[in-house]
Amino acid sequence: MMVVLLGATTLVLVAVAPWVLSAAAGGKNLKSPQKVEVDIIDDNFILRWNRSDESVGNVTFSFDYQKTGMDNWIKLSGCQNITSTKCNFSSLKLNVYEEIKLRIRAEKENTSSWYEVDSFTPFRKAQIGPPEVHLEAEDKAIVIHISPGTKDSVMWALDGLSFTYSLVIWKNSSGVEERIENIYSRHKIYKLSPETTYCLKVKAALLTSWKIGVYSPVHCIKTTVENELPPPENIEVSVQNQNYVLKWDYTYANMTFQVQWLHAFLKRNPGNHLYKWKQIPDCENVKTTQCVFPQNVFQKGIYLLRVQASDGNNTSFWSEEIKFDTEIQAFLLPPVFNIRSLSDSFHIYIGAPKQSGNTPVIQDYPLIYEIIFWENTSNAERKIIEKKTDVTVPNLKPLTVYCVKARAHTMDEKLNKSSVFSDAVCEKTKPGNTSKIWLIVGICIALFALPFVIYAAKVFLRCINYVFFPSLKPSSSIDEYFSEQPLKNLLLSTSEEQIEKCFIIENISTIATVEETNQTDEDHKKYSSQTSQDSGNYSNEDESESKTSEELQLVLDS
């Protein structure tokens, strides 16, 4: 029994011995690190992660990285054999717009498996750090100088001029915050109280990339004692003829003023630009609260203007800077147009006015047009609003004089400009379409009825000819009786020839025999019977013929 137990114990010791030796040597399997985070602020690249097993000591961590298109992994400089759970690899020269991939493992006597981090693009993952802030105090204002937190930044090299800034300011004694958005790298906060401490913090943003930075540390400063001379106020610019007129308000009389200007885009540039302000001609040592200068002093653009007062011994702080946009100050000229009249409408064609002289004219802005028209004999006006430059004015009266005038308005609410009305143009509408329609209808009817008119005319002419101009052709009985051509000619001869015919018939009757007389009588009866059936349309007998017939009848009877 003792031998058996001893043998079993020996087997157990032999089986367990490899595990015990491994544990004693610290050869326990290591787990991969978890929850790796990549923090990029400006040009600082920070990696953070969690340990998988806190009980295992003396463990180090190492990172590899891989660029897009690479098959092999490269050791990440600055992140090899790290004993903590944080490392900085800012020294690595990377293309911030190129995607990369990272992996990490734990190391001791042996190593854990690799834990891969999702690929990322540094620029997209980067955050904007807190900007640097420098403050200057005046009696009623604070001047703020802002610059990006990382100078010569690789991350923001293409966006250095695109930063905008916002701040939060409050009186140190009250703590009531006031937020001011979208300020330039050099900004002045006005209308503060003298000898008062104000605190503020600033953050940057890249609106084009939808990136918002973190706030800077809080900065506090106390305003100075109130200055003896206040700065000018309520500065305005207007246009008169070919000049700009700059006006302002000031409390004291007998003062001297000067006016300076600056390109507005320079405000976006970090750094000091005080020396870039320039004097406006004709606006130096001005004794009145206005100055006039020609428009050609400024090219098209946006400028900043400021005014300072002086009494010879004392000088005020500069006034609040106002923005001066040459396009906003420019004129919107009235439109020019042509009219084409119809019977019941006008077609109006609107064109851009021609610029004359150096007068600044608003251009390249969408416009709408206000058109007013009325009858020349009436004061009742009608209005049309159109965006098109080809406008139809409907519902007009034919042969009526109408007058038209128009003006333009900008569609940009910020610009908000309107021109004066153009000169009125009067035009008479054309005749109505009714007479034309009736004329066309009449022509169509005439063309349609023409064949019937021609046919009716032919029938009418036939009737006239039949009644007043009968045919001279003898009837068939007469033509048969006078078969010989000379006798036919006699029947168709004039009245004088018919008289000669009667004499011829009389001579024949005196020399004829009794038989001939009888025969003639029979023929005469036959002829009389035939002619009695005739319509008489072919009779040409007159009074002479009647007398001859009577004489012939007497001869036959005898």
Explain how this protein is built.
The structure is a single chain. With 558 residues, the chain is an alpha+beta fold. The chain contains nine helices and 29 strands. It has helices at 2-24, 122-125, 326-329, 434-468, 476-481, 485-491, 495-511, 514-532, 543-557; strands spanning 34-41, 44-50, 60-67, 74-75, 86-88, 100-107, 115-120, 132-137, 142-147, 164-171, 177-183, 186-189, 197-206, 211-212, 219-222, 233-240, 243-249, 256-263, 278-286, 290-294, 302-310, 322-325, 336-341, 346-351, 367-375, 382-386, 390-393, 401-410, 425-428. The strands form eight sheets. Strands 10, 11, 13, 14 and 15 form a five-stranded antiparallel sheet that branches. It has a four-stranded antiparallel sheet with strand order 4-3-6-7. It has a four-stranded antiparallel sheet with strand order 19-18-21-22. Strand 10 and strand 11 form a beta hairpin. The termini are far apart.
Can you give the helix content as a percent range? Answer: 10-25%
Q: What is the global morphology?
A: flat
Q: Spans of 5+ residues with little confidence (pLDDT < 50)?
A: 1-27, 486-548
Q: How much β-strand is present in the residues? A: 25-35%
Structural class: alpha+beta
Number of strands: 29
Q: How would you state the average pLDDT, rounded? A: 76
Radius of gyration: 61 Å
- Kindly report how far apart the N and C termini lie: 210 Å
Give a short account of the largest sheet: 5 strands, antiparallel
Number of helices: 9
